[in-house]
Amino acid sequence: MTVLFFLLDTVFFALVAAALLRAWMNTQRVRMTQQPGPFVMALTNWLVMPLRRVLPRRWAQHNLDFGSLLAALVLVALYALCYALVAQGLGAFGGATWLVWLPLLAGKMLLRCGFQLIMLLAFVYAILSWVQPQASVQYLLARLIDPLVAPIRRVLPTIGGVDLSLLVLIVLMQIGLIWIG
User: Has this prediction a pTM greater than 0.85?
Assistant: First the structure.
């Protein structure tokens, strides 16, 4: 059954992370025409577009992409339900106890996806800055990562001409993953 939980985690991580990335990209006003925009839209359009039609029009005027955020919440709720049903089939939950754990499972998955997504973006940004600093995706990653790294850069000086703020961000995300784990 470990394989089933692994597959469940992997599929839902990809979907939830894509919805969160779509929301973050739209919040940062990043054009969705270059990668990972088309990929993220292909993964999430089936859920985001119907949700946007249901949401009140006044929500569309805000800077946040409520359709994508709601899609992420729906996906983590579905993940928690699937996880609980598989675990209940294994006898891990008795009676209605799993109903208490559903919001906790969903919240944990949402936080985990957010932390892992930020780590992934930071890793790609760091590697590209060493290997191919003029890559077109580097500008997009900078627009996504810089708001998270800017407070760290204000506190942490460069050491020997090396900016360690991305490393600190990755360590903080790892601490967050340990905390929720």
Answer: yes
